[in-house]
Design goal:
Distance between the termini: 29 Å
Strand order of the largest sheet: 1-2
CATH architecture of the largest domain: Up-down Bundle
Structural class: mainly alpha
Strand content: under 5%
Number of domains: 2
CATH superfamily of the largest domain: GntR ligand-binding domain-like
Shape: globular
Radius of gyration: 19 Å
CATH class of the largest domain: Mainly Alpha
CATH topology of the largest domain: Four Helix Bundle (Hemerythrin (Met), subunit A)
């Protein structure tokens, strides 16, 4: 399965459902654990050196986030992603992202705005370091701060699941983005969103978030197009 048991500084294994959850989540989002990979409680417990209970708790949390799926036959696996589903994913992301960003422009407080700006600063720092894992995490934090500022917990909960799926897709083509296009426009897109929220321009905030989604879509489709062409040329 590719799961690695890490150790603490003193050489001892790290126990607990939270650590197992964080480690599995990281491996899923960075594609160390591939979509469709089977996750067995017994094997995971042995690899982490724990009982099945904390493993079960960790998997349950990942299931609520949509990163792990239980099939009717009780098989547990990393949630697959079919390329045919990408347009539907983008449609859901676009609608939800537009809604939460619009609501943030209407409902945000000064404290919300400060948290949004700080989250974006952290994202830009990760961008400068070229740390893919930290970039995707900081990007998610930025968008979640916007969602919370909108004051609709139902949309926020669903949006978080969509962003988690988006993190896997980002990692799939991060190298392509950096090598072919660079990442400088990402923080510019964020700036436009932030300023629209700050000035309480709901229409502009929604439009900026829509453009942000389209940029993500177009980059991913270009990545898929180039990789498909490359695969065909090797036949």
């Amino acid at each position: 399965m590719g799961v690695v048991t890490l150790e603490t500084e003193n050489g001892g294994k790290r126990h607990g459902g939270r650590y197992i959850y964080e480690e599995l989540r990281k491996q899923i989002l960075t594609l160390q654990l591939k979509p469709g990979a089977q996750l067995d409680e017994v094997s995971l417990a042995a690899q982490f050196g724990v009982s099945r209970s904390p493993v079960r708790d960790a998997l349950a949390r990942l299931i609520t986030e949509g990163l792990v799926t239980i099939l009717p036959n009780r098989t547990t696996l990393v949630t697959p992603f079919e390329i045919e589903a990408f347009p539907k994913y983008i449609a859901a992301l676009d609608l939800t992202q537009r809604a939460v960003t619009r609501l943030a422009a209407v409902n945000r407080s000064e404290q919300d705005l400060e948290r949004i700006r700080k989250a974006n600063d952290a994202y830009i720092q990760a961008l400068a370091k070229g740390n893919f894992q930290e970039m995707s995490e900081r990007n998610k934090v930025f968008h979640m701060e916007i969602a919370r500022a909108g004051r609709n917990p139902y949309l926020t909960s669903y949006y978080e699941k969509l962003l988690g799926e988006g993190q896997r897709l980002l990692h799939l083509h991060f190298d392509f983005i950096v090598s072919s296009q660079g990442l400088t426009s990402a923080d510019q897109d964020h700036d436009r969103i932030i300023e629209a929220i700050a000035s309480r321009q709901a229409d502009e905030a929604e439009a900026a978030s829509h453009e942000h989604t389209l940029l993500f879509r177009d980059r991913f489709l270009e990545f898929m197009k180039q990789n498909l062409t490359k695969s065909i040329s090797m036949l």
